[in-house]
Amino acid sequence: MNFITQTVKELAMDANCNIGKSFIDELREALQKEKSEIGKNVIEQIIENDTIAMENKEPMCQDTGMVVVFVELGYDVHLTGDLYDAINEGIRQAYHEGFLRKSVAKHPITRGNTNDNTPGVIHVKLVPGENIKITLAPKGGGSENMSLVKMLVPSDGIEGIKKLVLHTIFYAGGKPCPPLIVGIGLGGNLEKSAQIAKEALMRDLKDVNPDPVLAKLEQELLEEINTLGVGPMGFGGSTTALAVKINAYPCHIASLPVAINLQCHASRHKERTI
Ligand code: SF4
Q1: pTM (2 d.p.)
Q2: Ligand 1 geometric centre to CA of 254 (Å)
Q3: 6: left (phi over 0), alpha (psi -120 to 50) or beta
Q4: Displacement of CA 6 from its chain's centroid (Å)
Q5: Residue 12: closest CA among 65, 85, 50
Q6: What is the full per-residue pLDDT of the chain (274 aa) written as tens digits?
Q7: Atom 7 (ligand 1): residue with closest C-alpha?
Q8: Could you tell me if 256 and 154 are in contact, meaning their C-beta atoms sit under 8 angstroms apart?
């Protein structure tokens, strides 16, 4: 299982320090479109911060997150140990050797720190093949705190979904550290909607939703979010979000679950297939 531990360790260290050139390009594009001077200034500072972090291999944010790991496990893979232990060991080593802040409380009420950033939140899906794909995302507390799941009903429809998303982002203001990536899970049930919202945050920012209804909603929501005036880090401006990504799943005839998972500008995720 050592190769899984090693992979998780490398992905966690890389994700925290290296936002990636494509994300910087997204920020540069946003900078060209941003209407407010203070908004431009904030985006410039984020670009500078992320560039220094990449060059110096230092974390881009003091909040190094709770680690979320998506595993796609091939049916033909035979593991000889505990997958969850191997992943958590990789997290432990990365946060120790990378001097990354330990951000996990032992207990939600009594608190205390686990002191090694474990456990991660680990999702495993079985898929055809003989490979393991690991996608790892250190998720910051500020943007996660402003996320929610709401059980709407079918009659709320698209207008109800939009109202909920816009209200959530407007009242979150600067707390989730915009510019945001807005991951939305529609359908499933309470927990499924949250999981697919998180998965939506792993999508390529430039991809186009293959479902035309969702593609249109993503585009409309992005435009409407960027008229809210929240702006970069909540200081005002036209760049409140860089992208809206919606994943959907069939749901009960009585329900319209909506999960909104906000991702801050420290949009960290890395993947590798082994
Ligand atoms: S929400 Fe994101 S950018 Fe803000 S402090 Fe947390 S990790 Fe850092």
Answers
A1: 0.97
A2: 36
A3: alpha
A4: 22
A5: 65
A6: 799 999 999 999 999 999 999 999 999 999 999 999 999 999 999 999 999 999 999 999 999 999 999 999 999 999 999 999 999 999 999 999 999 999 999 999 999 999 999 999 999 999 999 999 999 999 999 999 999 999 999 999 999 999 999 999 999 999 999 999 999 999 999 999 999 999 999 999 999 999 999 999 999 999 999 999 999 999 999 999 999 999 999 999 999 999 999 999 999 999 999 9
A7: 140
A8: yes
Tell me the CA–centroid distance for residue 62 and ligand 1, in Å: 8
Ligand 1 centroid from CA 253, angstroms:
37
